[in-house]
């Protein structure tokens, strides 16, 4: 007597396991997948020649001099990764109250853009528009007399910074500062300055997250920030609807793509944004997420490739079009092997 007949004909009415019984069927019905086209590799850049420095809180991540950055960009291009996001490490002597190094045409970020474009013009270069690597206090904006991050004077600085990136050849400028009105100000300036093709990837919903710690170590802004935080401009982690208002504003001001950041704790926001706006929506798997996963891998508690792939597939399922992740290069390699 078969299992089925013991329970009467047609029992159970539905057998979802039929679609899971072999690999071919599982592949046929799979709803989401990860491709190399979905990946953006962030890179930390330092002054010097033929040198790299490990970032202790981000095992496997190194800060690179410009020549090594060029080699890294060439390798990423070979692997098919479409884009690279640059984060310069500013020497302490170049930091100031007015963050003027941010728009120095000979600054590290500007030279890094030119170095990549000279060797590998096809890979898209994304630059970070925010003042925190350049201010002595480590805040993303300029301070008023009371020590408050002042919105409108910061906009002028951000516009200068974004224009200098575009002039250096950046394909995509990515304001990550969370000042009000910055996307509109940057868009107007790009149009007026002869850069109508420069894309804006707005960090539209960026939360005041504790998961940025290792990044601040990597770019050397943690010491500058001291005990300070960014809660007067980055979003409160308790809020969801506010992210939709932020995205709506950035799109109305001229953003081409929007970013949600951090990633794994904010998958609900990715889903809501994707459903409401139907525009290119990117996720940032931030430094703390990378550090957290690596700590478990290095202890032998989790399996590296399987968990990285599962975490990125989660972003795709939530609705992300692309993912900025410190694992991008490794993932591109794994995808090429399979
Ligand atoms: C700075 C900036 C930060 C990150 C990207 N751009 C840190 C911050 O806002 O303090 C964090 C990225 C990461 O943690 O990987 N505007």
Automatic annotation (TrEMBL):
Keyword set includes Ion transport: no
Keyword terms, alphabetized: Heme biosynthesis, Lyase, Porphyrin biosynthesis
SMART domains assigned to the protein according to its UniProt record, in alphabetical order: ALAD
SUPFAM superfamilies linked to this entry: Aldolase
UniProt cross-references to PROSITE patterns, sorted A to Z: D_ALA_DEHYDRATASE
Enzyme class, broadest EC rank: lyase
Start and end residues of each stretch annotated as Disordered: 1-22
One Pfam match: ALAD
Pathway in which the depicted protein is active: Porphyrin-containing compound metabolism; protoporphyrin-IX biosynthesis; coproporphyrinogen-III from 5-aminolevulinate: step 1/4
A GO MF label: porphobilinogen synthase activity
Record-listed E.C. numbers: 4.2.1.24
Catalyzed chemical reaction(s): 2 5-aminolevulinate = porphobilinogen + 2 H2O + H(+)
Assembly: Homooctamer.
Family: Belongs to the ALAD family.
Protein name (record): Delta-aminolevulinic acid dehydratase
Species assigned in the record: Spiribacter roseus
Name of the gene this protein is made from: hemB
